[in-house]
Amino acid sequence: MTREVERRLAEQIHAIQRELLDPVAARTLFTRPLRDREIAGEPMVLVLGNHSSGKSSFINFLLGAPVQKTGLAPTDDSFTILRYSARQEDRDGAAVVTDPELGFDGLAHFGPALVKRLRLKGRPLQALERVTLIDSPGMIDSPGSSPERSDRGYDFTGAVRWFAQRADLILLFFDPDKPGTTGETLGVLTRALYDFEHKLLILFNKVDQFRSLSDFARAYGALCWNLGKVLATKDLPMIYTTFVPVPEAAEPWAFAERFAATRDEVVREVLRTPQRHLDNLVTELGVRAEALHMYAAVLDAAVRRARRFRLGVFGAWSAVSALMSAGLWWAWQSASLGPRGLAIAALCALAFAVGGFLLARWLVRERAAFLPYELDELFEQVHAAELTTRERATDLRARWQTIRPRIEQVLEQPGAFALRPVRRRELRPIEAVARERVRELRAWLHGRARDEQGTSPAAAPQPIAATG
Questions:
Q1: What is the spatial distance between Cα 97 and Cα 107, in angstroms, rounded to a whole number?
Q2: In the chain, where are the structural domains located?
Q3: pLDDT single digits (tens) 275-319
Q4: Cα–Cα distance between 351 and 464 in angstroms, integer?
């Protein structure tokens, strides 16, 4: 892709986000916008896997240089950013997160425990001119460990998701010794990598260690079985069976060399990341539009429910208070009560009004505090039609589980009554972005790619408006 295509695509994404998504996102306190640095950033590959699964060996093989340490035992507990530099340079985490030009300043909110385990290596290597690599700490995959618990001192799963959101390709390594999906790997698969199946490659690495085809079949079957239990998809994704030649390793089994073609295919996918980058920007725009639409629609339903209850409670209190005031006025006009009786009745009416107001306010607060427990019900109501007609209702519910915590936070602070309801006319353009604008952008992008390759006659792209 030429720089001109990249520039025009970035302009259109900027316009759509700025004019259609950002106003609603800002008003409803939605998070995760596409930032300028991400749209114009370099292509990125995130490398994940259990410790000793061959991540660092693959990176060194790809770069053609021993940049990362390798070994059977865990050799590195850091996230390492490998990017091109005209001269060799190394930076620690504090220097990385305080440089806004690098685009990793968002990692600072994970705290000093992560920042201390973050580093950048700049190397004058040809492969890094095309792509930036993120090497990650080896995941702990021992039975009995919990995906909800981390002994690292920071939110490991959250950090992985932060990188995964910005990566254009994700490589997830498994090896023959640990083909399971417990512990941190389970948390990463079910929570950190949700919604990123389109850029995830699963690698069954080190297949040269097997000594027979039956051993390979048993381990491969165990990996498929474990993945099938945790991946929220009907079909198991392709698993790339591969290995990296290591000079000091034992002689590989005769069948192993047949997997060299698969390794070369993975390398080609990594080198194709610059082309993926633009396509992923379009995909990310669509994912954010769908998430924002779901978030705003359910939050709006919660806000309207709270406001209706408040209107009903204070309406009842106002009506009763008005009736009592009218009764006192009638008693005073008709002189049916003496001065003393009228004073006592007035005090009683005042006490009832104040007490009723305090009770009504308490009821409203309690009702608002109960809203988070009704979010699943509101989600089912708002998306009732989609859940009955959409083929991938499971995916819709899975996306809801990632959005629900943010709505809970907003309902707790600043609260339902601090937000204004979202108008239907504000939601329609967001839905149009997810369903129509993304498709138009992708068709335009692929059309330009064909034109540059000379496989079709050049045609002027239809303008993609950002408003309306």
A1: 7
A2: 41-271, 292-451
A3: 888 888 888 888 889 999 999 999 999 999 999 999 999 999 889
A4: 63
Q: Mean pLDDT of all residues in the chain?
A: 82
41-271 to CATH, choices 3.40.50.300, 2.60.40.10, 3.40.190.10, 3.40.1410.10:
3.40.50.300
Which residues, at least 6 apart from 429, have a Cβ–Cβ distance to it below 8 Å?
Answer: 20, 467, 468
Is the CB of residue 181 less than 8 Å from the CB of residue 136? no
How far apart, in Å, are the Cα atoms of 158 and each of 14, 110, 193? Answer: 26, 8, 10
Beta bridge partners of 120: 81, 91
User: Residue 305 and residue 357: Cα distance in Å, rounded?
Assistant: 20
pLDDT at 369 over 60: yes
Q: What percent of the chain has pLDDT over 90?
A: 30
pLDDT tens figures, 247-287: 655 555 566 667 888 889 999 999 888 888 888 888 888 88
Residue 358 pLDDT exceeds 80: yes
